[in-house]
Fold this sequence. Notes:
Layout: H1 2-18, E1 28-30, E2 35-36, E3 43-51, E4 59-67, E5 78-82, H2 100-106, E6 110-115, H3 138-156, E7 161-166, H4 168-180, E8 185-191, E9 209-211, H5 219-231, H6 245-254, H7 276-283, E10 289-291, H8 304-310, H9 317-325, E11 332-335, E12 342-345, E13 354-359, E14 366-372, E15 375-378, H10 409-412
Parallel strand pairs: 5-6, 5-7, 7-8
Antiparallel strand pairs: 1-3, 2-3, 3-4, 4-6, 9-10, 11-12, 13-14, 14-15
Helix pairs in contact: 4-8, 5-6, 5-7
Amino acid sequence: MKIRQSSIVALNLILLLTIPRVARADQFHATGNPRELKGAPGIYEWKFMAVVGKSPFDKIGLHRLAKGPKPPEHLDAVVLYLPGTNMNGEVALEDPKYSFQVYLAEHGVDVWAIDYRTHFIPATTPESDLAELKGWTNDLFESDIDAAAKFVSEKSGHGQLFVAGFSRGVEFAYLFAAKHYPERTAGIIALDGFIPTRPMRVVPAGHYADDIGGEHLTYDRRYKLMQMVIENPDQAAPIPKYKTARDNLEHVVYDAGGFFGGKGGLANPQGGFSDPVVLAKLLISYDRYWPAVQDGENPRRFRWSHLQALTSVRSGRRWRKRRQDRPARQIRHSRSSTDGGISTFWPERSPTAKSSRQRWPGSSSIRSRRNCRGLRTRRSGMAAGQDQHRGDRPRAECEAGECPSQGGASATRCDNRSEWRQR
C-alpha cells in the first residue's frame, strides 16, 4: 500500500512539473538597465521578464522601445508586437529602415515586443529534453500574451492596446483580439500573416519540437554561415560551389522552395531587393526550436461573432452604431471553392452601396468588394493557393543554394512559418 501511495505521489509531482503554468502580469520584473540603441540615437530599450513555471524554459520576456532616456508617459498609441515563428522581441536590426519596432518608436509610439517561451530554450538543448513542449499550445501562448498585455497596460497607463503581429503573430493577434475586443484592443496591425482554415499538418507521435535547422544545413552550419556573412560577406564560402559567403546566403534564400515557391519568394538579394548582411543579422537572431503541437491544432478557436465584431474596429463609431440599431438579421457565411477563404454577407443591402467583382493583384481568385459610403470592407481569407500549401513548410534539404530558408520583417517579405523545414 505504501509503495502504491508513493507511486501516486511521484506521478503527481511529475504532472505538476510537466503541465505548463499560466503566466500572470504581476510576475514581470525589470532586468538590467535601459540602453540607447546605437543605430537609432534617442531610442531606448527597457527589458522585462517573467518566470512562469518550474522549468528553466518557462519564462516570458518583454522589450519596450520608446524615446528616452526616461520611460514615456501619456503617449497617444501603445503597440504590443507579436513576432512570428522562431522569432522573438530582441532588436536584431537597429536601423528603422528594417525594424518595425524601431520605426514606430522613432515616430513617438510606445512599442512593446514579446519573447515567447521558445526564446529561453538554449540552442544546445537536445530535442530529447523538450518533451514539455507538447503542452505549449496556441492557447498557452495566448495566455502568455494576455499576461504580457496586462503588464503593458499597467506600465503604460493604456487600457486598450494596438496589437501587431507578423506571420504566426498575426494569428495570435486575432486570437487575442477575438477574446478581448473592445475592452483591451484598440486595433490590429497584421503583417504578412493569415488565419489558416485547418490544422497545418499531422504531428507525429513523440515529436514535440521543430528545429530551425535542416538535415544537411544543420543549426550549427546555418549559424556559422550567418556569422561569416556578418563578419565579412566577401570571404570564401563554406560550401565550395559558391565563391563567397554572401553568394552562398543569396542562393540559399533565393532558392527556398516549398511554401515560398523559390525564385526569390522568400527573399531576393540577387535582384537587389534584400541586403545579405541585413538578412544574416536578422536570421541569426531566430530561436532554434518551436512547439510542433501548434501546427496540429485547429486554428478556428474563436467564434464568428467575435470576428464580426473585429470587422468594425476600423469602420468608425457612426457605422457601428448604424449596424447595432438595425433589427437582428441572420448572417450567412460562404466558403470559396477557389481559395478556402470565408466571406460574410448581410441579406439586406444599403441603397447607397455598390458591389463589384474584380481580380486582385497577385491572386488567381476573384474577391468580393463592397463600397459603402466610402468605407470599403473586403472579404477575409487567404491568398489563392496558400491554404493548400500550409503543410509544405520547407526545411533545408542540402548544404547548397537549393536549400529552403526563412526570413522575416521588411528585409525578406515572407511568412516565416516555414523555417528551413522538411515535412
